[in-house]
Amino acid sequence: MDDEVTCPPFESNPDIIASFVSDLTECERWKCADIFSLDAESEQYLPGKAVAIFLLYPMNTTAVERNGRSDSPDEEILQQVVFIKQKMKNSCGPVAVMHALCNVIKDETLATSTSWMHNFLKNCRKFTPDERGLYLSKDRMFNQLCQVYGNSGDSEPLESDVNVLLHFVCYVEVDKRLYRLDGRKSGPEYLGPVVGNSFFTTTMFHCKQFVDILLAEESSVEFNAMALCVVPS
């Protein structure tokens, strides 16, 4: 990670995420909502169809690293899943959002032809994960939006160079397979098939497993989950 390029850390705030996504895509069909319980029943309270899940958790737990799978990228998976290496310090929130958008957007119904996101997908889909990360770290509009939304929210904004102990990851479905995408890693982590054609239920199962790993080391763990949703046009 290039520590010389920094980003104010994003607050785990659905309104901030939804506005950030809308600015990137020029599309109003995106919604974001907190997930208050890691149970399948939580899906009924979402504002639309969940297409990606964001999980925020503390990085200062060795249990997560011990239980992580191989960090060696699978070339076949890298051909199917768009992955981005995090190059800017504290940019795990924006990178998680980009992981979601890159793997969910298939046509102009979710990102207009004039949007920044459409241009990124057109230019960078064939890039390597490192090249995509470098592109984001140098793109003026992306960095301007990161500054705007990183300094928004209910809590007091943090300086870009502060060491933040909370980290965002993204869960997405690609070809009926579930992946966890973490910009600190070298590639996507395949978690297994999406069960029963339910992305949300399958993801909640894996999120609970992940949180249980955290709780095995700490009696109390600060974490938050949000769903990125799409509503009908």
TrEMBL record:
Site (Important for enzyme activity): 182
UniProt record, GO biological process: protein deubiquitination; ubiquitin-dependent protein catabolic process
GO cellular component: cytoplasm
A GO MF label: cysteine-type deubiquitinase activity
Reactions catalysed, as given in the entry: Thiol-dependent hydrolysis of ester, thioester, amide, peptide and isopeptide bonds formed by the C-terminal Gly of ubiquitin (a 76-residue protein attached to proteins as an intracellular targeting signal)
Record has Protease as a keyword: yes
PROSITE patterns registered for this protein in UniProt: UCH_DOMAIN
Site positions (Transition state stabilizer): 86
Keyword Protease annotated: yes
Active site, renumbered: 92 (nucleophile), 167 (proton donor)
Domain UCH catalytic: 6-230
Keyword tags: Hydrolase, Protease, Thiol protease, Ubl conjugation pathway
Record EC number: 3.4.19.12
PANTHER family xref list: UBIQUITIN CARBOXYL-TERMINAL HYDROLASE
Family under the similarity heading: Belongs to the peptidase C12 family.
Listed name of the protein: Ubiquitin carboxyl-terminal hydrolase
Protein's organism: Trichinella pseudospiralis (Parasitic roundworm)
Gene: UCHL3
